[in-house]
Each structure stands twice: as structure tokens, then as C-alpha cells.
Design goal:
The chain is globular. The chain has two domains: 155 residues, Roll (Thiol Ester Dehydrase, Chain A); 134 residues, Roll (Thiol Ester Dehydrase, Chain A). It contains five helices and ten strands, in the order αβαβββββαααββββ. The protein has 293 residues and is α+β, with helices and mostly antiparallel strands. It has a ten-stranded antiparallel sheet, with helices on one face.
Amino acid sequence: MTAETANFDSWIGKTESLREILTINPMIGMAATLERSDLRLGNGSILPPLWHWLYFLAPAPRSTLAEDGHPNRGDFLPPIDLPRRMWGGSRFQFNFSLRVNEVVERKSEILSIKFKEGRSGQLAFVTVRHTLISEQGEALNEEHDIVYRDNPGADASKPQPLAAPTQFDYSKNVTPDPVLLFRYSALTFNGHRIHYDREYVTKVEGYPGLIVHGPLLATLLVELLREKLPKYSIGAFEFKAVHPIFDLNDFMVCGLNPDTDGKVELWIQNHEGSLCMKASAIVSNGIPKSKSA
């Protein structure tokens, strides 16, 4: 255990519980944002995978926000003194579907806090487990990896991007216009300025353009899977952010058909063919098999 980790040891095991009714209006907004006009939404409609991010938002007062638009740390999440915060990835287990107008409780627990030194400076990794519980029991389990990092120095080396796979069974081109990013920020009450404030993201954080939300990218992967392989049900899903996607160019959401074990490989690549997010899912009840199987 490093000295930095020891300073936050008391935060490991900290819990939080929120309770909410899964009202229909956020789903209507998400369906419009994702061009899902085929969804018939009403009382008792199934919540698509990852759409639970529309709920349990716990909005912070504007006076308590940091410069980047995030709530100040030190309430549930530890007060790690690193300026940049990113969604590193998540792992999910889907036990059964949630439905519109259900009363659902989300129990959260901090599982681990780790520090390391990266190319651009110090990094901190916080893993939080979320469990969503309805009247039927534990519907969904998620482990969420949050990455905190220092501002990179002028001489910091940039990692070389990885090449995305060149073969896929299905894909979709996405144009990340500012309206898409704004709508997703609004639906998830995400005040992080890197997604909508071009002057901030370019002049303060030094990125070339607005950054597409990691959860939005993950949602697009799952939506692609549901669109192209509608006979499958998703039992598990995980993703990891590899390289940022900016609103300056289109990107591709890609996937392979399931292998013999029901595993699906998915990824997102930018306009240069670089890997930006990698993911996998475990599915069942489908017919197609991957070309690579």
C-alpha cells in the first residue's frame, strides 16, 4: 500500500443508498436522442441495458461545483486532489430487467482506491460497486472504475494509439455533433464541461474538441448489439475507455457475432482507425456465429 492509498484507506467500504421511481420521461428523452423511434414506451416497459444511468443522479447545487463542472469531492467519493476525472470503464451483470415506474434502490460501495505513476503524472483509480434492487431482488450489478489524473506537463509523452481490429460483422457510423453531447449531458445531469464547453476543454484542458462521454459510447455499443442481434439477451457486459473520441470527426461502432461460448467482442474506432473503446458481452438465445469463431 502506498502512502497516498493509506491516506484514503478509511474511505474503502463507504456506502451510499439512493431510492427512485423509474419514471418514463427520461426514457422518452433517451429514445429521441438515440433515434429509437421503434421503442413503445409506457407503464411497465423494460428499461434497456445501461439506461439506468438516467436515474440516481443526486444533483449537486451549483455553488458546490468545481471548475470542471463536477461536484466537489469529499461527500461519497474521496477528496483526491487530482484535477482531471474520467470514466475508465465498467463491468455489469444483468440478472433481470427493470421496468418503467418501478421503485428501485441503488446501493453503492467504494471497493478500492489505488495510486500509480503514469506517463503524464500521478493517477488514482477508484472502483465503486453499484447494486440496483427492485421488488424482485438484485436486478443489476455494476463495478465502475473512476480515473483521476494530474494535468500533463508540457514535456509529457503521449501514448501511441492502438489500431482497432480491421474485420467486423456489423458496424454503424456515428456523427458526434454538439447537440448529441448536450442532450446526453442534460439527460444524465452531467455538468462536466469537457462535453459541452468548447472554450474550457480546448483552452483549459488542452484537448482539440469536445469529448464524447464514455457512458454514451458504451450505450451506443449496447444499442448496436441490440439492433443487429435482436434475438439475443445480454447477461453481462464490460467496457474500457482506451482513447478519447472528439466531436471533430465521425467514428464507428463495431462488433463481431457471438462465438461458440456466447461472447461478443465490440469496439469503437475513430476516423483514423485507432481503438478508442473496447468491450465485450455475454449473450444467449442467438443464432449467428462470428466469422472469427
